[in-house]
Amino acid sequence: MLRRTLSLLLLGLACLVALGASTAEAKKWEFGDINNPNLASLTSSNFTSTLSKGMWLVEFYSPYCKHCKKFAPVWQDLAEYEEHLADSHDFRFTRVNCITQGDLCGEQQIPGFPSIFLWADGVRFEEYEGERDFDAMLAYVEARAADWRSYSAQKAEALSTGR
């Protein structure tokens, strides 16, 4: 009886330890965590090919930068909120960690962190210089996505009619 009770206690303890470990793992990537691997990221090996088609808003950041850490929840919120634009407007979000991709950030002449640039069909189109809050960025993204959708429709029509 004592042996059975001890076994049950040990099993219970093992379950609590396992639950604690899984909870700790789940907390590792809380909302707005700058190191969240679920947010799309680019490297030097996929940068050019990824940005070559469509419109992309790209954040260049350092995980050690206090401004980047403060901005991380806004970026994640915006990317998740506007995820539907990938299908409806061919407009996507991604980012580049300039600590792990230092050569790439050097090639792109990134002036500081966080820096946000808009790419259109592989060409750097403009730098976002507005406020770094959700509402300001949302207005910017929606305006640029609408412009891109209109441009893409005109381009497709011109190609289909041979103009």
Report on this structure.
By secondary structure, the protein is α+β, with helices and mostly antiparallel strands. The protein has one domain (47-161): Glutaredoxin, CATH 3.40.30.10. The chain has helices spanning 2-28, 47-51, 66-81, 85-89, 102-107, 134-161, and strands at residues 55-61, 91-97, 115-120, 123-127. The longest helix has 28 residues, at 134-161.
Topology (SSEs and partners):
Layout: H1 2-28, H2 47-51, E1 55-61, H3 66-81, H4 85-89, E2 91-97, H5 102-107, E3 115-120, E4 123-127, H6 134-161
Parallel strand pairs: 1-2
Antiparallel strand pairs: 1-3, 3-4
What oligomeric assembly is this protein in? single chain
Number of strands: 4
Strand order of the largest sheet: 2-1-3-4
CATH architecture: 3-Layer(aba) Sandwich
Mean pLDDT, to the nearest integer, reads 86
Query: How much of the sequence is in beta strands?
Result: 15-25%
Query: What's the CATH H-level superfamily name?
Result: Glutaredoxin
Number of helices: 6
The largest β sheet comes out as: 4 strands, mixed
Shape: globular
User: What is the third-level CATH name, the topology?
Assistant: Glutaredoxin
Can you tell me the residue ranges where pLDDT is under 50 for at least 5 consecutive residues?
A: 2-27
- Terminal CA distance: 88 Å
Q: How many structural units, i.e. domains? A: 1
- The helicity comes to 40-55%
Protein name: Thioredoxin domain-containing protein
GO molecular function, one term: protein disulfide isomerase activity
Organism: Pseudozyma flocculosa
Family: Belongs to the protein disulfide isomerase family.
